Structure formats: C-alpha cells, structure tokens
Amino acid sequence: MDRAPTIKDVAERAGVHAATASRALNPATRGMVNVRTANRVAEAARALGYAPNSAARSLRTRTSSVAGIIVPDLRNPVFPPIVRGIEDGLREAGYLALVGNTDGDPERERELLTAMRGRQTAGFILATSRRGDSFAGGPAVPTVLVNRRTDDGDTPSVTADNAAGVHLLVRHLVDLGHTRIGHVAGPRDLSTGWERYRAFLDATTSLGLEPAAAPVEFADAFTEPAGHAATLRLFAEHPGLTAVLAGNDLIALACYSALAELGRSVPGDVSVTGFNDMPFVDRQRPALTTVRLPHYEIGREAARLLLERIASPTAPAKRVVLPVELVRRDSTGPAKV
User: Fold this and answer.
1) Residue 276 pairs with which residues in a beta bridge?
2) Is 142 within a domain?
3) How many domains does the chain have?
4) Contact 148, 192 (CB under 8 A)
5) CATH number of the domain within which 218 lies
6) Structural domain includes residue 23
7) What are the residues facing 307 on neighbouring strands?
8) pLDDT at 209 over 90
9) Is residue 154 domain-resident?
10) Which residues contact 17 (CB under 8 A, 6 or more apart)?
11) Positive/negative CA dihedral, 169, 174, 176, 182
12) How confident is the model at residue 53 (pLDDT cuts 50, 70, 90)?
C-alpha cells in the first residue's frame, strides 16, 4: 500500500463497517462494540500499521490522546517493565504516554501533574500515591493507581497480592526451621510497605511465632541506603535472628551488605528474602529468594483500567489484585542451630 492506511482499510480487513471500526479503536466508544469484534479490528489496525488521527479526534471529542504516567524512581528496576506494560496498552488504543519521574518528591509530583494537565492530558496512571491520598490525580481527571493504592479505595488501582507473597515467604522460612525471623519493612505511609508489614504480623502469628521472635524495623524508603541503616538497627536490638524478610529486593540487597559488615554470612548465618524479583537478583551472590510480581501485566492492566475510566468516569472504582509466586534461590537455607 503506497498511501497511509485509512479507517476504511481497517474496516475492510476486519470485515466490519467503517463506523464499527472507528468505535472499536476509540477508547471512549469501545464498550459499544463486541469484544471479539473490537479485538479483530485492533489486530487489523496493527497489521496495516494504521494510526488514528489523534488531533482530529481531539477536536471532535474535546479530549486528548495523551496519558500521563508518574513514577517515584525510574532507577528502581521494578518500574521500567510496569511502564512498558502501560505504554503498550495505551498505544494499542491510540494513546501517547508521557512519563515523569518524581524522585519521591511530592512537590515534584504536583509540578508534573500541573504541567501534564496543561497539555490536556486525558488521564493519569500514578505509581506515587500514599495511603492517605484522596483522588490522587484530581477529581476532574481520570486516574488509576499502579503498584500502590490508597486506604479509602476511591481511586481505581492495580497491585500485586502483597499479603499472599509475604505469607509464602514466611512459610518458606518456617519450613526451613527458622523461628527467629525479622522484618525490614518499607515505609508505613506507602501501601506496599504497610500491607507487607501487616501480612508479616499475620503470617508469623498464624504459624505460632511469638512477637518477640518476629521483630520489625521500618526503613525510611525502599532503597539500599535506607535498608542498610534499618538492618543495622534491627540486628543491634535482635542479634539472634536467623532470617530476615526484606520489604523489597533493594532492601534485601542492603541486608547482604549490612550483614557482611556485621560478620554474618548469607545464608550460612542468616537467610534473607526479598520481594519483587527485580532484574538481576538471580545473579547476585547468593541469588536472592524472593516473590515474583507480574510487573508487565500490572502495567497492562493499569492501562486497561484507565481506558475504562476515561470512557466511564463515574463508574465504581475497581481494585485489581494480581497473583504472585515464590521464587526459591540460594539466599535461604536451613536455620543455624
């Protein structure tokens, strides 16, 4: 084809009327089309390399085909696959993603939200929310939370099953004979830190561990420096621990360095577990036992929820929780007697 494909070309390839193809490719009207038909139209559009005329659509609908993604730290290996999933999901619907990084600074987040709203952004996907936030993206802008959520549940969100993951880790450690297990938790104001902390208390209690045998130390952030400091504080108060459940993989890697500083080996003296299964933790020495999250799928699902929210802004907020799995590696072993 020497010319750019048109909506009529897409409709002909998919075997539908042009109006049906147009509705199927517009997130605001996709719900009016049978799912199988919409998928067939999307596949035809991809095969032909069809790109919707977003400028014209914006003039007709007074909406933008741009969505904003805001993350707290792009250096954290957890976020790139989530962002990739979001971008892929949005691109298939004809949306362009703008990505902003806050470095965990709330003021920077406000600046990014203001700047993106100025570009008539159709909606936001935020990985920066705190538990106490309310309608994080603003009441007039469709917003979805990803990887984190708020306590009130008023904003759609996509997260992994944090509680199930922690229960898998604690059971794994107990099965190895550990009865003195510490937790270096993430920040309490973030749902990821709080939910994993609460799950640790539930899991250790249900498996018969006394509170004194399951102490907790909170890190100020999900970073290696914060994790290192928290690990040193934990072992200063509880030197007899034989295992540590870290709030995430970065904190787990900090446990390695802190324990080495204390003259403890992993897993010979202390077993260590992480959470997230971020890239390259399988190449650490020892390779990290952790919980694997479906990062890319979390991003795809967040994109789907945002498109739904744009189409139906007043629909009830959905809270999607995706399953996780335990990944056993070399950082955990039998409890030292």
Assistant:
1) 292
2) yes
3) 3
4) yes
5) 3.40.50.2300
6) yes
7) none
8) yes
9) yes
10) 11
11) positive
12) low
- CB atoms closer than 10 angstroms to residue 140: 9
Beta bridge partners of 325: 292
3-state SS of the chain: helix, strand, coil percent to 5? 45, 15, 40
Q: Which residues face 327 on adjacent strands?
A: 290
Query: Taken in order 322, 74, 136, 140, is the CA torsion positive or negative?
Result: negative
- The answer to whether the beta carbons of residues 302 and 148 sit under 8 Å apart is no
pLDDT value at position 6?
A: 86
Structural contact between residues 16 and 44, judged by C-beta atoms closer than 8 angstroms: no
How far apart, in whole angstroms, are the C-alpha atoms of residue 82 and residue 157? 13
Q: Examine residue 246 and state whether it is found in any structural domain, yes or no.
A: yes
**Chain CA centroid to CA 201, Å:** 23
Which ranges of the chain would DSSP assign to H, the alpha helix? 7-14, 18-25, 35-48, 54-61, 79-92, 106-117, 162-175, 191-206, 224-237, 249-261, 295-311
Euclidean distance between CA atoms 78 and 196, whole angstroms: 16
* Residue showing tokens 């290192």: 228
Rounded to a whole number of angstroms, the distance between the first and last alpha carbons of the chain is 73
Peptide bond into 27 cis (omega under 30): no
Q: Domain containing 96: what range? A: 63-159+294-322
Phi, psi of 230 (to 5 degrees): -65, -35
Take residue 203 and report the two structure tokens written for it. Answer: 């899991």
Q: What is the pLDDT of residues 72-100, one digit of tens each?
A: 998 899 999 999 999 999 988 889 999 99
Rounded to whole angstroms, the maximal C-alpha distance in the chain is 75
Is the distance from CB of 204 to CB of 214 less than 8 angstroms? yes
Please tell me the distance from the alpha carbon of residue 121 to that of residue 117, in angstroms, as a whole number. Answer: 5
Dihedral of alpha carbons 16, 20, 21, 25, sign? negative
| Structural tokens at position 37 | 């038909």
pLDDT at 54 over 60: no
Q: Among 298, 269, 274, which residue's Cα sits nearest to residue 284? A: 274
